Amino acid sequence: MDPRNTKNDDWLFEITPKNKFFSLNLKEVWQYRDLLLLFVKRDIVTVYKQTILGPLWYLIQPLFTSITFTIIFNTVAGIDTGTVPPFLFNLAGITIWNYFTSCLNDTSDTFKKNAAVFGKVYFPRIIMPLSVVISNLLKFGIQFLIFTAFYIYYYFKGATISFNQMTLFFPLLIIVMGILGLGLGMIISSLVTKYRDFTYLIGFGVQLLMYISAVMYPMALIEEKLPSYGWLVTYNPLAYVVETTRYMLLGIGNISVLGLVYTVSVTFIVFIAGLLIFNKTEKSFIDTV
Amino acid sequence: MKDIILKAENISKQYRLGQVGTGTLSHDLNRWWHQIRGKEDPYLKIGDTNDRSTKGTSDYVWALQDINFEVERGEVLGIIGKNGAGKSTLLKILSKVTAPTTGSIKSRGRIASLLEVGTGFNPELTGKENIFLNGAILGMTKKEITSKLNEIIEFSGCERYIDTPVKRYSSGMTVRLAFAVAAFLEPEILVIDEVLAVGDAEFQKKAIGKMQDISREGGRTVLFVSHNMAAVRSLCTKGIVLENGTIIFSGKSDESVNYYLDNAYKTGLKPIMNRNDRKGNQKLVVKDIFVENSESIRVEELHSGEEYFLNFEFEKYGEIDPKQFTIVVQFKDDNDNLINTIATDELASKFFEISNHGKIQIHIPKLQFREGKYTMTYMISEKFAFNTPHVIIDYLQDAFVLNVIKGDYWKTGMLNRPKGFIQEASICLVNEY
């Protein structure tokens, strides 16, 4: 017998029923980096094919939401945004919030939406949600440009808004938001393969979540007006991201180090949990989806 | 010296039957509870073998059970079996689309799978963009694709449309483009599921040629699933035959194909009263099929050129209009090619009465089949005329096997060559001076 066959350790890989507890194969993901980029390109190129306004649709949605929020929450309900123009206050919150929801929504049906491709060919499944988070980053970039435009406009009109040294850390905040959306999305996408109930949950869940994430009001306000329900917001990691965004970009509100540490820890836990569940699901979801 | 590149050990795959959803949560919890206490999965013990036609007692079936095989480098392994034998499940496990329930597959090479052509094609993207996307999905890097781009485009024959969105392509062009991408894959192990059955004849020929190149010159290992026995014979070096989720034969490709066909004939020879895959309203049921020679003696082996009577013994249970009574009998050779049909409507046979019991007798004055085994399918129906809609009464695929042995059709003292059909002919030489 050929000695090569007697030793078992020179197999390139092995397909087995159960995963090791944690088996994110980063090397494999790296091998498929071209696929990741092509998916990102596909997402960007195909979304607005056969539309007249094209990527302008990216701008219309946050602008109109901000206008609506300004009318309802600031003009009618009278929420005070201090020295910052209410419109800009809302736009900042909505821009970062949109990035989170688009990451969450688009990753949460990864398995269901791609069942046809996943059922026919193997590639590291995590490529799909990753590509979503990256292509949404571009969408966020466009929306951030429009925010910048209004920022300059209000600045020259004499509004008291200012950058500070914390502004430099804004990219990190975006990454935290993306990872949080990705982590939650991966958990939900895994659950959806078996229990479709979660599709409905995510639909209105995200809507409700926005109201306790300090998107259209400063965090301090909820503690002042609704002290008994304030914990809903103070325990919500998303609220800290939104609040910190406004602090970094507009110089209002306060920055809570404890809150940010809490947010990053939650993000880390959610992301790891998401990876674990996603990894476990990708092995045999095709039988149950 | 053996150079094993792929090794499957005790592969099994269990599926849950019925609706996933009701009862899954309770099963999941039960499974989890067993896992926590360190016990075995309670649902792994139960499960029937996968025989589609019989009703099982368990909610779980084994689509595959204890599959073991080894593939050497450069070998082309054909996987054959009837529908539902577990071929596709095996391919899905090999291509990592789904995990086995037990067992493991060990590999020394990168596996690329081709279970479908054009996976991930996006209709909005152009042909060229889709080549890149599809290639990357199949595991190629951008660099590899770029270096082969011209060859791929040329092989597909879609050069003119390469910058047009794929949604404007004809379905044939899409398939050509998709196959072209796949044809230039260069993994160590290639897993293919009947993708050759696409495109027009010219393209199929090209595709088969390409496949042969891949395995012979490229020295690559190919695992190939097909119903096309001719393709398995010509492409594969080894074969395994699957039935109800287990390997019932493995050996050289020719031997495997023969075993599979023989086995298929065995089911064909099963008394047809025991068959439960009949279709139709069963107003009339064929109880037995047999062949008699000119002396009315039942025969098992037929000789080319002799006279025979093909009998279908029937019982009638409902009213049938004799004027609309039609029977169509088709014969297929061992590569599943239809080679002959006998039909009452073509012959313009007319009947005026059908008794409750009797037989339909097809008279064959001179058998024109050459040596070989021919499976017969029959369909009895009611219809007004040729090519009009009909109501199926009794329809059974592969109901009977004609076992033809060499005969002397022309009465010249020479035995006829095997396979196919004997054409009435005479040959003369026209000399011109």
Describe the structure in your own words:
The complex is a heterodimer of chains A (289) and B (433). Chain A has helices at residues 3-6, 26-31, 33-47, 56-76, 86-108, 110-113, 115-118, 127-156, 170-194, 197-211, 219-225, 230-234, 237-250, 257-282, and one strand spanning 13-15. By secondary structure, chain A is mainly α. Chain A has 14 helices and one strand. In chain A, helix 5 crosses helix 13 (237-250) and helix 9 packs parallel to helix 14. Chain A has one domain. By secondary structure, chain B is α/β, with parallel strands linked by helices. Chain B has two domains: 72-266, P-loop containing nucleotide triphosphate hydrolases (Rossmann fold), CATH 3.40.50.300; 273-405, Coagulation Factor XIII, Chain A, domain 1, CATH 2.70.50.60. Chain B has helices at residues 24-36, 42-45, 87-94, 127-137, 142-156, 171-183, 201-216, 229-235, 253-269, 344-347; strands at 4-16, 48-49, 60-72, 76-81, 102-107, 111-114, 189-193, 221-225, 238-243, 246-252, 284-293, 298-299, 301-303, 308-316, 325-332, 338-343, 357-364, 372-383, 390-405. In chain B, the strands form four sheets. Chain B has a six-stranded mixed sheet with strand order 6-7-8-4-9-10, with helices on both faces. Chain B starts with a strand and ends in a 28-residue tail after the last strand. Strand 1 (13-15) of chain A pairs antiparallel with strand 5 (102-107) of chain B.
Give the terminus-to-terminus CA distance of chain A. Answer: 45 Å
By CATH's scheme, which homologous superfamily of the largest domain in chain B applies? P-loop containing nucleotide triphosphate hydrolases
Q: State the order of secondary-structure elements of chain B, H for helix, E for strand.
A: EHHEEEHEEHHHEHEHEEHEEEEEEHEEE
Order of adjacent strands in the largest pleated sheet of chain B: 6-7-8-4-9-10
Structural category of chain B is alpha/beta
Query: What CATH first level of the largest domain in chain B would be assigned?
Result: Alpha Beta
Listing every helix as H and every strand as E from the N terminus to the C terminus, the arrangement of chain A reads HEHHHHHHHHHHHHH
Uncertain residue ranges of chain A: 1-8
The whole-number mean of residue pLDDT values of chain B reads: 81
Number of domains of chain B: 2
Alpha plus pi helix count of chain A: 14
Strand content of chain A: under 5%
Spatial extent as radius of gyration of chain A:
22 Å
Q: Would you tell me the structural class of the helices and strands of chain A?
A: mainly alpha
**What is the terminal-to-terminal distance of chain B?**
65 Å
